[in-house]
Amino acid sequence: MHRHRGTAVIVLTTLLLYHDTTALKASDLFHICNRNDPQLNNCVKEAIEQLRPKLKSGIPQLKMPSVDPMFIPKVRLVQGSGPVSIDSTFTDIYVTGITNFDIKQVTVDLDNYRVDLQMALPYLYLNSDYTIQGRILALPISGSGDSWSNYTVVTGTGSLIGHKESRDGKDYMKLDQFKFSVDVAHADIHLNNLFNGNKELGDAMNRFMRSNWEAVFKEMKPVVDEAITSILTDIARKVFDRFSLAELFPVG
Fold first, then answer.
1. Which of 116, 137, 190, 220 is deepest in the core (most CB within 10 A)?
2. Cis peptide before 53 (omega within 30 of 0)
3. d(Cα 67, Cα 219) in Å, to the nearest integer?
4. Whole-structure pTM value
5. Is there a domain that residue 19 lies in?
6. What is the domain extent for residue 109?
């Protein structure tokens, strides 16, 4: 008798969880924009802005953790030519500041399954573990340890590109790629434990990188771009995989 009661509870719980997930509507998460709205671009811009608190806290219905701080397991940068020639790996990367975004412009092209956007942020702060070997502006650099970097007055441009995919009689936007590029007004990059912990050499290299931050950031930029792109791609993919185009952009 008790065994059957336990089985019934498990089945009921499973059904309730399944019902809760399948009952989720796009309008439960964000403002819905009509496909024919002449102000569609502004509507989507406002919808993204209104999503900010949920991005900060996370969206468990979509299995989406908080993006502030963002966590990226690993990014590798191999730069073989130019003023910076390094082989570096950054692991356990945490990025803070992303939800302070200010959306400047959004362009929605539903016929070609594309969304372009421009945003600005006061800052992005990254901390991570690292290993590095190579040369920066003709000076050798090597080491492994923890690092931090602070990027201020950040601007970002992104292009979300996809194609139509039909499932169960509904049309979805299948994400092909999300290109995102960051530019900054200033960058401060600091690597601890350079040169096997030689403090004098390490401090000198960190001062040198601060003085030549533009050249250093130009070569480190792929790490920042990839870190942010990986998270934004995950967010976009979960939204567009879960909700059909008719749900996200109804015709009214």
1. 220
2. no
3. 25
4. 0.76
5. no
6. 32-248
Distance from CA of residue 111 to its chain's centroid?
25
In this structure, are strands 70-79 and 139-167 parallel, antiparallel, or unpaired?
Answer: unpaired
The Cβ-side half-sphere exposure at 62, using a 13 Å CA radius, reads 23
pLDDT of residue 83: 76
Q: How far apart are CA 177 and CA 22, in angstroms?
A: 27
CATH at 66:
3.15.10.30
| Assigned domain for 26 exists | no
The pLDDT assigned to 14 comes to 39
Question: How many domains does one find in the chain?
Answer: 1
In a domain, 46, yes or no: yes
pLDDT at 217 over 70: yes
Tokens of 35: 């496909």
Q: What is the pLDDT of residues 120-167, one digit of tens each?
A: 999 999 999 999 999 888 889 999 999 999 999 999 999 999 999 999
DSSP 194: B
The Cα 192–Cα 203 span in angstroms is 9
Residue corresponding to tokens 């309008």? 27
Degrees to nearest 5, angle at CA 45 with 41 and 48: 140
